Structure formats: C-alpha cells, structure tokens
Amino acid sequence: MGMSKPWSCFGYPLSIFFIVVNEFCERFSYYGMRAILILYFTNFIGWDDNLSTAIYHTFVALCYLTPILGALIADSWLGKFKTIISLSIVYTIGQGIIAVSSINDLTDYNHDGTLDSLPVHVALSMIGLALIALGTGGIKPCVSAFGGDQFEEGQEKQRNRFFSIFYLAINAGSLLSTIITPILRVQQCGIHSQQACYPLAFGVPAALMAVALIVFVIGSSMYKKFQPQGNIMGKVVKCIGFSIKNRFRHRSKEFPKREHWLDWAKEKYDERLISQIKMVTRVMFLYIPLPMFWALFDQQGSRWTLQATTMNGRIGIIEIQPDQMQTVNAILIVIMVPIVDAVVYPLIAKCGFNFTSLKKMTVGMFLASMAFVVAAIVQVEIDKTLPVFPQGNEVQIKVLNIGNDNMNISFPGETVTLGQMSQTKEYMPFDVNKLTSINISSTGSPVSTVTQDFEKGHRYTLLVWAPSQYQVVKDGLNKKPEKGENGIRFVNTFNEMISITMDGRVFENITSHSASKYQFFPSGKKTIIVNSTEISQNCTQDLESSNLEFGSAYTYVIQREGNGCPKLEEFEDIPPNTVNMALQIPQYFLLTCGEVVFSITGLEFSYSQAPSNMKSVLQAGWLLTVAFGNIIVLIVAGAGHFSEQWAEYILFAALLLVVCVIFAIMARFYTYINPAEVEAQFDEDEKKKDAEKNDLYPALGPVSQTQM
C-alpha cells in the first residue's frame, strides 16, 4: 500500500475520476471502431453480408473470451494497475494498425481508387483486431474491480453509486462514438482518389485510446494498489479437478456418499476454499442459459444494422444513416437506467412483490425475445415494399425512349407505345426461352427487329431513339443498393462522348446514345457536372440531382436544350425504401429494457454472490456468457441458411423464450447467500479452534484419508 491518506472529493476517492474518464475514452474507442466495422468489411474489403457478420461476431466473441486472460495476469502476476497499463498499450497499437489497414492509398499503386493488393489490408486489419480483442478484453475485468478497490470500509453506498456511474460512462462513450464515427466515415478523403474516410473514422478511436492511457497514468500516485493475490483461478481449477478425480476413485458402494460433489476435495483442500468454490459453481451453473440473451442482444450491430439499410432514414427533419440506428440503444440506456432504478423498482416493491435479481433477469430475457418478434414483424413490412427481381428463367425488360418521335415496341404477347422522353412504368417480366422477337416501329418507317441474347436472372433496359436505332443495356443491378445508398447511371443523347462528375465521382467516356454503369451515392442532393466539347462556354456548368432518399436507383438522361446547354431528365429504376427507420425504435426499446433489467442486475448479482477473493473470477465468468452468445449467432447463422430474414428472427425469439422458461425454473431452486456472513462464520470457527488447541495440546497436522 503506497499512501497513508487518500485524496477525496464529495466523499469519493479522487482517483475514481481518472478511472471513470479512462473507461469513457476506452469505450468510445471500442464502440466507435465497432460501429463501422461491419460496413468496413462489406464496403472496403468487399466481403458479403454473411462472411462479414461471421467475422464481426468472431471478433466480439474474442473480446469477451480474453477477460479470463486479463484476470489471470492481474491476479497472479502483474496486479490490476500494471495489467491495465500494459494491455492498454497493446490496445492502442491495435487501433493504430486497423486505421492504417483502411488507408486506400497504401496499396493503390496505379491510383485508380481500387485496392491492388487486398491481402495486405485483410492481414493488417486481422492483426489489428486481434490486438484490440486482447487489449479490450484483458482490461475489462480489471478496470471495474480496480475502481471498487479504491473505496474504504464503510463506503458501500458510494461504491454501489460508482458502479452506476461506471455503467453510464460506458454508455455515454458508446453513444457519442456511435454518433460521431459514422459521420467521419461518410467524409471524403484520400491522396489520389476521394473515398469514404475509414482512416479518419478508425483514427479518432485510436487517438482516444491513447488519451485513455495517458489519463490513467496521470492518476497513478493517487490509486490504492494491491499486490496480486496469487493464482486464484488456478486454485479453483485444481480443487475442482481433484474433487472429481477423488469422487471417481471412490465410486464403489462401500464409500459413504457425501452431501456435495465438491466435498470430495476435503482430503486435500481446506473447508473455506471448498465453500467459496461451492458459491462460485452454484452461480456458474445459473450462467449456462445466459449466452442466449447475448446472442440476440449483439445482433444490433450486425443483422439489425443491415435491416436498417433497407429502410428510409428520414425522421422528421433529420436524416439518419443505417449504422447510426445503434445509438438508439445507448440513448435509451442513459434515459432508462435512472428511471428503472428510481421509479420502476420502487413501484414494484410498493405492490409487495419481491422482485429478486433472478426474477429481473428472467423478465429481461422475455423482453429481448419480444424485441425479436417485433423485428420480424418490421421485416415482413419491409419485404412487402421490396421490388421483385427476376428469378429462375425470367428476364425483366424496360423500354426507355430517348428520341423525338413516338415509338411502338412489340414483345411476344404485348405492344408498348412510348412518347418522346418516356419509359415503361415497370420492368416487364419474360421467360427467356419465349422471348422470340422484339420489333420496333414508328409511323411512316419500316419495322426493325432487336437481336440480343438475354441472360436469365437479369434486368435489361432497351434504349430506343429511332426505328432502326436502339441499344440493349444490361443493368447489372439485381438487388436493392446496399447500405441504403442510391444507384445512379447516365444516358448520353449527345452525338459525341461525354464525361460526368457527380459529387466527386467520375463517369468516364459515355459514348453517344449509350448508358454508363451504376455508381452508388448516399442520400441528399448531388451536383452534376457535364464535360463535353459540344457544350458552349456560357452554359451553367452545374446541374443538380433530385433529393436522393435511401436504396433507390435512377437513370439520368442528359439531353440538349434548344440553346445547346445540357439538361437532366430523371427516370426511376428502383423505388426508394419506404418503411421508416423509426419503426425500428420499438424493437430497440424492448431490447434496451431487457438489457437494463438483465445486464446491470447480472453484474450486481455476480458481485453480491461471490466471495471476496473470487469477484474477478465471477466477473470473467459473466463476460464469458457474452462470448458464447456471439458464438451461438455464428452457429445459427451458419447452419440455417434462411431464405427469409424474418424466419431467422422468429427462430432466435423462440430459442430465447425456451431458455427463459428453463432459467426461471433453475432460479426457483437457487437460494441467495451473503458471502461476507459465510466468511465471518469461518473466522469465528478458526478463532475457537485456535483457542481450544492452545489450551489442550500442541497442534497436530490434519490427518487425511490418503495418509492412513
């Protein structure tokens, strides 16, 4: 122990301030990085949704497996203070590496805006994530316990208040970062080509991790630091192992049964340790069903974010990006924790209902299960609005007349007449094998036939501008644009090549009477600049797109006005998302209520039921349930390939309901204990024994069955 009199402030140790600020910065760093991780995988590295979801949950699982390592290092080797510092350094380096891995110009040798060596980026980001998982997991069980260590005897009330402040610091950090990093991500940056700014979005969390480390070191002289207690976890494992071996050796009838399976360790270990381990194993047994809750909870960052990308983010006057919806959880936590503590629990108590910790946790599981039922209902609503894309042998064709005459186009079984600058309302479905002839005609000119091999499962646009002049364009867009972005392509009606710059992106060399490929843009109005030798200098350079919403696709036809200047004609290919993101709020609300009564209660329950020297063991056990939850997501998402997303949500909801019932039954049979009283009882007994021994005869060593 270093100090005599600890510094204090409002009855709290001053050192607490540094620990809370450190936790705020660390959580900002972690959640900021995690908020954009899934979009980094899909957009930047280019993995598909399922692989990205799998890697995301593997990473989260790792972050919750490493606390065991952290608890071991702190308990048996470095002590909490040094463990926090050394692992924070590892963590900061990891954040730095992942920021470097997202720099496009690192391997973009020919400066065309695409990566030339993807494995370099993948390798760097995996190394970065591994270091982050080690850092964040390793310090997790240490920081909260180190905070608890700062309080004196008789400061229980302040200590409990500290845990609440600590939980709010976690959520304030995650709230701010999940709002800020997605905003940084959509900025444009880059040396040679402008791109979404991942290096900045990952770099800010890295800087904050460095700040967290510095703040923690500054407080060094004020902390109460305890020596490492020796390898508690090792003792626990050895004792359990010995007990099982010993029970197995004495399995025949002539040995009397013992009350508890751990009593078989009595030959080698003292009663106090055995009773402490009994407390721990009874709680650990209760933990078995808990991972199912986390399996649902952690899908906010993956499946629910992907669900938001098929929705419309305009809520009133503000516009929300899909990855910002996760902030709803943190906002609700900051509001709900005080309300539940100050209003809901006291009301329940007034009604005379004994709302024990385990009952609260059961209610939390039920609420999370209901959240997924709501998510499934929202998904069904979304599915109704999604356009139908060609399946199987089908192709879909739409006609766009970019000429100055009326055109008649006849397909097998139907004929379409289009005026100038107009298109068919819908894509028309045809069976590839029956699409024998397409004829184009207009008054006073001969009929011409379209010759084209159509590939099944695709959409095509037929551009016509004179009876014998047409072009068939393969759209290459067979699903809604991802991340809620909007696909835009241009059709050139000028007589020579043009290039177009839209919002900093270039559509190069669009030949006369043909269409460019789609490029994708976030929501909002965009500036469009047309470059062509045919355009006179006095024309206004900038044209403007309409206000793009979410998940739509448009074709812009560039025409020439009478004065020779370009003008835009807009045609809709895929309608924007119509289901509002605000509809996700009820599922977030239910899940957050579930989290408040489940998560905070679980931490407090683990703390209250653990003997003093095993609090870190149980905290690590609690975090392990989170890791297993993420592993469950991997298994379920991997094993059941659902054609319908709502079916997967319903499956998860049903699984959690079943687990909730099992947990309720287990909870019925649990008896609460007060570890401090048990310890006190042992202290009493030992005093008595010592007194007796000193009176009667010199102490003899304990005689065990193995010696006899």
UniProtKB/TrEMBL annotation:
Annotated keywords: Cell membrane, Glycoprotein, Membrane, Peptide transport, Protein transport, Symport, Transmembrane, Transmembrane helix, Transport
GO cellular component, one term: apical plasma membrane
Compartments it resides in: Apical cell membrane; Membrane
Gene Ontology biological process terms in this record: dipeptide import across plasma membrane; protein transport
Membrane topology per record: Multi-pass membrane protein
InterPro entries: MFS_trans_sf (IPR036259), Oligopep_transport (IPR004768), POT_fam (IPR000109), PTR2_symporter_CS (IPR018456)
Ranges of Basic and acidic residues composition bias in the record: 685-695
Catalysed reaction, written as an equation: an L-amino acid tripeptide(out) + H(+)(out) = an L-amino acid tripeptide(in) + H(+)(in); a dipeptide(out) + H(+)(out) = a dipeptide(in) + H(+)(in); L-alanyl-L-valine(out) + H(+)(out) = L-alanyl-L-valine(in) + H(+)(in); L-alanyl-L-prolylglycine(out) + H(+)(out) = L-alanyl-L-prolylglycine(in) + H(+)(in)
Chief location bin: membrane
An MF annotation (GO) of this entry: peptide:proton symporter activity
Self-association and partners: Interacts (via extracellular domain region) with trypsin.
Membership in a protein family: Belongs to the major facilitator superfamily. Proton-dependent oligopeptide transporter (POT/PTR) (TC 2.A.17) family.
NCBIfam families: 2A1704 (TIGR00926)
Known function: Electrogenic proton-coupled amino-acid transporter that transports oligopeptides of 2 to 4 amino acids with a preference for dipeptides. Transports neutral and monovalently charged peptides with a proton to peptide stoichiometry of 1:1 or 2:1. Primarily responsible for the absorption of dietary di- and tripeptides from the small intestinal lumen. Mediates transepithelial transport of muramyl and N-formylated bacterial dipeptides contributing to recognition of pathogenic bacteria by the mucosal immune system.
Protein name: Solute carrier family 15 member 1
Organism: Ictidomys tridecemlineatus
Gene it is expressed from: SLC15A1
